[in-house]
Amino acid sequence: MKSLNFEKSWIQAWDALNEKRENIGVYREMLDEGEPVADEINAEIKALTDGIDELEFRNMLQHEDDRRDALITINPGAGGTESQDWANMLYRMYSRWADRSGFSVSTVEYQHGDVAGIKSASIEVKGEFAYGYLKAENGVHRLVRISPFDSNARRHTSFCSVFIYPIIDDEIEIDLNPADIELQRFHSSGAGGQNVNKVETGVRLIWTGKLSDGSEERVVAECQQERSQLQNREKAMQLLKSRIYTLEKEIKDAQRSALEGTKKANEWGSQIRSYVMHPYNMVKDHRTNHETSNVDAVMEGELDDFIKAFLMSESN
């Protein structure tokens, strides 16, 4: 059914472009007859161009996992409050991007920072090509700014790691031995500290075992978004299997022995993208060299240009 819907979406997109092409032809005939339709023609041409760009964008997403929903996990690096606040800024940025892109967004896990920000957070993004787009964000993100937490107003550098996982469904079987999974329960609370539950509805699952290459792994997944412990346990199990699936996929792709092996140290020089707010404004992706001086727009979720630049570099 998903494959059929995918094919239909391509046909519908192509039909929409063809309709705009025909509209442009009609408007040109009207223009030749002296009708004041120049604005209409320009609008249709722009819509056609944008539609073609969108199809080219989607054509870059050919991997079997690209159409899946995605899990974004954000972890601050060393630096205490500074890094935890930066992690919260990224959490907000990705939530804004997903919302403005028409995806369904929900917070699966959220741990408050000691003073401000977050110690970790996981966001589920649901919609067609969610993982295909977001995989461009996998890596270490670096922030340079005047610290709002430093009474001497000194410049600080902070790091956060962002990991993107495809969320698998029942079509893919991942067999896990229940004896290898530890279940932990905790009181769940939402972002901002609201809705703290008096009962332990939050669930954390810890799997310890061997991957197909024989390497020992410890994989953790937790969920606190649902109202009941049973629902959170089911969601945590899905996320646990998704993370193990990703590890196995990386092994089979021979890109690295396991996904954990790609986790660069959260320190100077290992970042994929820098966000500079002082002494100048700039966001620069170090893989593609795409950059912009409009830092505020990026932090409000305008990431498409960065994502497209990355996908184009990968396709080339």
From TrEMBL:
Name of this protein: Peptide chain release factor 2
Family of the protein in this entry: Belongs to the prokaryotic/mitochondrial release factor family.
PTM statement from Swiss-Prot or TrEMBL: Methylated by PrmC. Methylation increases the termination efficiency of RF2.
Keywords carried by this UniProt record: Coiled coil, Cytoplasm, Methylation, Protein biosynthesis
InterPro entries found in the cross-reference section: PCRF (IPR005139), Pep_chain_release_fac_I (IPR000352), Pep_chain_release_fac_I_sf (IPR045853), PrfB (IPR004374)
Domain of life (superkingdom): Bacteria
Sites of N5-methylglutamine modification: 194
Organism this protein belongs to: Cyclonatronum proteinivorum
Coiled coil (UniProt feature): 220-257
Chain ranges of the Prokaryotic-type class I peptide chain release factors domain: 187-203
